[in-house]
Every structure is written in C-alpha cells, then in structure tokens.
Amino acid sequence: MAQKGQKFNKYDQDLKNQIIQDFYLSHHSYKLISIKYSIPIGTLATWISHSKQTDYLKDENVSNKTVKTINN
Length: 72
Known about the structure:
- With 72 residues, this protein is mainly alpha-helical.
- It has 3 helices and no strands.
- It starts with 12 loop residues before the first helix and ends in a 19-residue tail after the last helix.
C-alpha cells in the first residue's frame, strides 16, 4: 500500500519489455531479475502477471515470437 509522500518510479516501456523477455528467456526467479535490474519484486510480479494476461507468450519459444508491449 502506498504511504503518504511516497514517490513512484516510472519505467520506460522498452525497459519493461526487455525485463519481461529476460525473465522468460532466462528462467530466473523474480528475486534474481529484480536484483539484476534494481526494481522491486512486486513491480516485476505485476509486469509478469500482466504479460500472462495479455498472452505475451503462447509457449516458451520466445525467439520466434514478436514481443508484445505491456501497457501500464
């Protein structure tokens, strides 16, 4: 939950897509990806959840797929 006076970060759409693609291709945990890109685990989990809802991947073969953008 947001606290009074809390600042929120805005992330570039290209960066979001890169991080999501890295998550799916590397099969690393949320924790490792969040540390690698210095983003909160909750933020990453939200992006991944949204990517699943929008059929970011229909299978695990990302290399042959066009990367869809996630709108937040």
